[in-house]
Amino acid sequence: MGTSPPPPGRDPVEEEVDETLLLPPPSSPPLPSSSLEFDRDRHVTYLQMMYHMLPHHYQSQEINRLTLAHFAISGLHILRSLHLVDKDAVVSWVLSLQAHPADDAATHLSTGQFFGFYGSRSSQFPSDNGKVLTHNHSHLASTYCALAILKTVGYSLSNIDSKTMSTSLRNLQQPDGSFLPIHIGAETDLRFVYCAAAICFMLEDWSGMDKEKAKEYICKCQSYDGGFGMVPGSESHGGGTYCAVASLRLMGYLEGDLLLGNVASSIIDVPSLLEWCLQRQASDGGFQGRPNKASDTCYAFWVGAVLRMLGGYKFIDSNALRGFLLTCQSKYGGFSKFPGEFPDIYHSFYGYTAFSLLEEPGLNPFCVELGLTDAAAL
Ligand SMILES: [Zn+2]
User: Fold this and answer.
1) How far apart are CA 86 and CA 123, in angstroms?
2) What EC number(s) is this enzyme filed under (predicted)?
């Protein structure tokens, strides 16, 4: 395959592609999984396709272009196929999406703006008078993905102007310790606390976050049943639980194997958290995000990663999980959310991370706290 860059010159979401290979026609029968084995070669082919051109179904996700690129590039790294990526082209594309103050940085910072990364080219367009474009600001999730991609392709983050990014990150933290994703106001929840923590960790600069306040916010999100809701008082959720535990880990509040340490002195309730996570493995072997929900490929990572951080991954039924995940493996490569459906890039990426946690041969080990391969995280 060639090494043409995914992002820079052409716009893959507008490329023509044989969509029948990628997403289901309206009334198609369930797809059989490709085999009873993890089909690494087909997964590499699938991600290569996504790297070169995204099918038009992703058009509405244009604003999340950096996130989609992260799934393709980091996914190829898990599959030990990063050589298929044109690293220089990727770096220059990612850096072109960094937000910089126009002139006087101090003035801009006082307006409360955040100078991270835009999610895509269209989000760099200026606001029009009709306020049609409302997302034209750098975003915490895009910034996390930008830094994750740069680390994955081996670009040193010491080369980027991170001072303004760290200083302006403070503008997003709220009095209760949570974070806005963009400075013009939006929902605040654990997802953006996690993005902020991962950004500070990767930049090796925590000046953008009041860690104590963030810690207090996270602890308030732990529910009576041991899991974490996205906001204080909400129902426990696999994604929120991952964001909480991974953030505390990156912030240095949860060290080592928690089950081997003094659980009673932990700032969170570890025994009930362990219990909640283990109960998320359903009778079909897969993991659900909440009680009474169907098993879904991505929770094999979100909940599995928490169990790995707690030291409790050894208590899951890994054979049963493997069996469930293989029913979500597409014969075209990639993973679907539920068994027998067509794959998408999000569930494919988390399928690969799940198989990495299961120590599938031929995959790179994964740093669960940071959401990158171990090699990229270092
Ligand atoms: Zn899912």
Assistant:
1) 24
2) 2.5.1.59
**Which residues touch 102 (CB under 8 Å, ≥6 apart)?**
108
Burial of 154-184, coded b for 16+ CB within 10 Å and e otherwise, reads ebeeeebebebbbbbbebbbeeebbbbbbbe
Kindly give the distance from the C-alpha atom of residue 348 to the centroid of ligand 1, in angstroms, as a whole number.
10
Residue 47 CA neighbour count, 13 Å, CB half: 31
> In the predicted model, what is the mean pLDDT of residues 101-126?
75
What residues have CB less than 8 Å from 253, skipping those under 6 apart? 215, 267
CB 40 within 8 A of CB 34: no
**What distance in angstroms lies between residue 337's CA and the mean position of ligand 1's atoms?**
5
186 CA → ligand 1 middle, Å: 23
Q: Which two tokens mark 58?
A: 């992703």
Which tens digits make up the pLDDT trace of 20-29? 334 444 444 4
Domain ranges of the chain: 37-126+133-377
pTM for the model:
0.88
Reading the block at residue 253, the tokens are: 């509040």
Measured in angstroms, how far is the CA atom of residue 288 from the centroid of ligand 1?
A: 9
Ordered DSSP codes for 79-124: TT-GGGS-HHHHHHHHHTTB---SS-HHHHHHTT---SB-SSSGGG
- The answer to whether residues 189 and 240 touch, using CB atoms and an 8 Å cutoff, is yes
The per-residue pLDDT for 127 is 59
The SS3 of residue 78 is helix
Measured on CA atoms in the order 348, 297, 118, 245, is the torsion positive or negative?
A: negative
- In angstroms, what CA-CA distances link 314 with 170, 259, 324? 39, 12, 17
Domain 37-126+133-377 = CATH 3.30.470.20: no
User: How far does the centroid of ligand 1 lie from the alpha carbon of residue 350, in Å?
Assistant: 8
191 vs 231: CA distance, rounded Å: 10
